[in-house]
Amino acid sequence: MPLAPSPSELTLTGRRIVLGITGSIAAYKSALLARELRRRGAEVRVVMTPGATEFITPLTLATLVDHPVHSDFTEDQDAGVWTNHVELGIWGDLILVAPATANTLAAMVHGGCDNLLQAVLLSARCPVAVAPAMDLDMYTHDATQANLKTLADRGVDVIDPGTGPLASGLVGKGRMAEPEEIADHVAARFAAELPWSGKRVVITAGPTHEPLDAVRFLGNRSSGKMGFALAEVFAKQGADVTLVAGPVALSTPDRVRRRIDVETAVEMDEAVKGLWGDMDWGIACAAVSDFRPAQTSNDKWHRGEVPSAVELTENPDILKGMGEAKQPQQKLVGFALETDSGEQSAMGKLERKNLDAIVLNTLMDDGAGFGHDTNKVRVLFQDGKSVSFELKSKYEVACDLVELWRTTITP
Ligand code: CTP
Prior knowledge:
The protein has 411 residues and is an alpha/beta fold.
């Protein structure tokens, strides 16, 4: 079973890639590339030129991508079944030709249509990337360089070959980039197209637990689901997300770059203080305990030893601290859970904590707030405007919120 990508790795979840393989010895690396693309979550279809099938068998690739390989214009000549090259070009989010021989690059420049891959390339509607592989003199030849330039000018993404020993025995530039590098390049390209790409976002989520004794704590019923849903949506849309999570039973959403687990409000405050200066956006979704026991016991309180009263002391207001340190280019959003309609109280928090927006959910609404998989929210802005949403799943609410903030709070 393929290993899952690590959270820090650029993933390709849900991406559709048509992998074109041409006749070069580097075709053996295409098997590793196909596996790497799949490991990162991409769906892959393979188109091989007749030359490529002399270097590596279609069966190898078909097994790795779990789908038959296309290499002929016809699927079943006797029955007259043909391979729909137009469909393949429409299906893909990207056509990646790796390795791309000098011959295929030349055919791409001139609109050649001698084999299925060239037909797919001619009818493609999606972006195209090529990873050239050839011998040193072929690579440096004026014709090849001119072809690469023409392709790059047309918007084809050229993934530079590496330098090293070549199959001919020569040493120089021309060997295909390594499969991991190609996968990184392709994933970075997809990430750069996303609306939140390049934005660093810190999200606090979940409750805090304030210890009373060695085993007991003061806490609240927050599940962390809303904050984790936001982290998932931001990350899917290309943001570089750091999640600071209180004690929750949730796994880190796909593509979230960093997760810091904390227990108490003081720990959460310290984590956020260390991060906030480098962030573009802060989303305070955590249900932070406003107070903690003034004294805690390292032992467990036994019956008969339990204090008759517990003195409480105030915790730092994490969001207020972020608001005070906020730079003009930084954007900050808070949440307010109120037991009544709460508009006035939420507006007070928005001003006091120097926020760009506050998301209000009230326990008066069924299905909103702690413990539910749904939420019903209203977003209030500095200028007094507000936007209300219907009761939805927390994931859908997160989609609405992330899009609303992007379109209303300008950087
Ligand atoms: N918050 C925080 N640190 C705290 C308390 C709250 O960062 N110690 C953040 C929450 O994550 C939320 C917002 O502040 O985004 C509002 O939290 P809330 O508890 O409703 O606000 P308070 O200012 O504590 O007001 P009150 O408890 O009086 O309603």
